[in-house]
Amino acid sequence: MLPLDATNPLLSEIKASIDNIIHTNNQTIRTLGLTDALRHDILKALITYSEKVPHPASGATNVNGAISSTLIRWQILAYVAGVDLTIAKWFESHLDALSILHEVGYDKADQGLWAVWAAEGHSNPIHYQQGKISGTKEWCSGANIVDRALMTYRDKNGQSQLLIVDMQQTGIEIDNEEWQAVGMQATDTATLQFFKVTASQVGIANAYLERVGFWHGAAGVAACWYGATAYLADYLISAYEQKPNDYKAMYLGQISTALAVTQQYFRYVADLIDSQPQLSHELAIRQLKLQVEKVARQVMEVVGQALGAAPFCRNAHFARLSADLPVFIRQSHGAFDLQKIGELTGILANDLTDGQDNIWQL
After folding, report:
1. pLDDT averaged over every residue in the chain
2. Is CATH 1.20.140.10 the classification given to domain 18-97+211-349?
3. Per residue in 5-37, pLDDT tens?
4. pTM over 0.90
5. For the chain, what is the radius of gyration of the CA atoms?
6. How far apart are CA 321 and CA 311, in angstroms?
7. What residues contact residue 8 under an 8 Å CB cut-off, 6+ apart?
8. What's the fold here for domain 114-208?
């Protein structure tokens, strides 16, 4: 995980709260067998901290400026992901919804669980007219437990708009049948059909995609990937401490280097966002996401080689993280992300400052 830092008391408070829930169920994180009820108990506890979790790009949060608000947020997401990626998926989406609403100037968000549902492309897209929506929305995680959703749709001019939908209404059909995933199976991801359901529009046209916070929020997803990855790697540290050998040390050295570099890049990007909140930092965040995906795949492979079949078969927590993480990191867009990084790099190279030979010069 992004390290538990003495300058992040909120993380310590959240960790103590979650530990208490887990211990009350006579479990520990490393032997955690999650039921739906236990997941929901943990999620409810996390929601109580929502207003305390800083929005991205909020600046430094202590007098010495030792830790950025964005890093505090990412440390919390990384910790939750190390506990369970399904809970992290729900909580990250909830926090993202609150931050989006804050950024578009809507500060009257009701309590309860929120989600952001922004997938588009269905043949029966959402239509909004006179305060009502009809149509289909796919890839809606937490569909049966969310209180309110922040949802995108395209208006008659093709512009992206944001809607707030109270999910405690009639006229909503939830279909979980298409979600056949083994990894991230418990996320309650569904296709929703809306039949003249009340909704309210918020923000200006294209606010969701064009605001700088779109990219700041995307990095929060990468923090979830990283938290789960770091927890899987920690199993190798424990195995090495219990029974050291040269091969485990070699594997540990390999992933330790990769994780340390990625950890420092998170800190760099967090400082970048908080020091220049008016910028999206799209290039740095795209690079961060690709780096985390690369490290996640490396850690999963290397830890598996080092530890063999036993933890996949006998440790519920390890097995669940190992199954969930490959599905979750597919929110990365692979070759498309690399293409965009190349294009943005080319633009940056045209803006070299005086004295620079190339953009990677130390």
Report:
1. 94
2. yes
3. 567 999 999 999 999 999 999 998 888 889 999
4. yes
5. 21
6. 11
7. 67, 71, 72, 75, 76
8. Butyryl-CoA Dehydrogenase, subunit A; domain 2 (2.40.110)
